Amino acid sequence: MPSPRITVADLDAHIQRVGEAHGIERIGGRRAIAYRRGPAGRRRLGIRIPPIRSQVTYAVALHELGHLLGPGRSGTRLEKEAAAWRWALANSIVELSDHARRSAGRRLRSYVL
Question: Helix, strand or coil for residue 73?
Fold first, then answer.
């Protein structure tokens, strides 16, 4: 029996559910970023991400969530980026396409070059 097809709407809903479950604010924006705002003890967590339109933008959104939820939040920038990508891959609800994986690899390599 074939597995049900996961749509872009399903991917978007997954990002929304994970964010809501952890009290993470989600705002739209062209450049993706994870942030912490406010004084210690009352800090608000959030991500700014482009609209989820493909597996690539879904992976980017998961990566930003990984900065806030995953392990490896200390260390060098490269270590933090790699940890966020590992978290994204481990928490994806789909097997990411080769295109999405190559895009993640290019983004990670940009921190090395």
Answer: coil
Show the tokens assigned to 8: 């872009």
Cα separation, 80 vs 76, whole angstroms = 6
Strand order of the β-sheet with 24-28 is: 24-28, 44-49, 33-37
DSSP 19-37: HHHTTEEEEE-SS-EEEEE
Q: Which amino acid appears at position 43 of this protein?
A: R
pTM above 0.85, yes or no: yes
- Which residue type, as a one-letter code, is found at position 104? A
Q: What is the pLDDT along the chain (113 residues), one digit of tens a residue?
A: 445 789 999 999 999 999 999 999 999 999 999 998 888 778 899 999 999 999 999 999 999 999 999 998 888 888 999 999 999 999 999 998 899 888 888 888 887 76
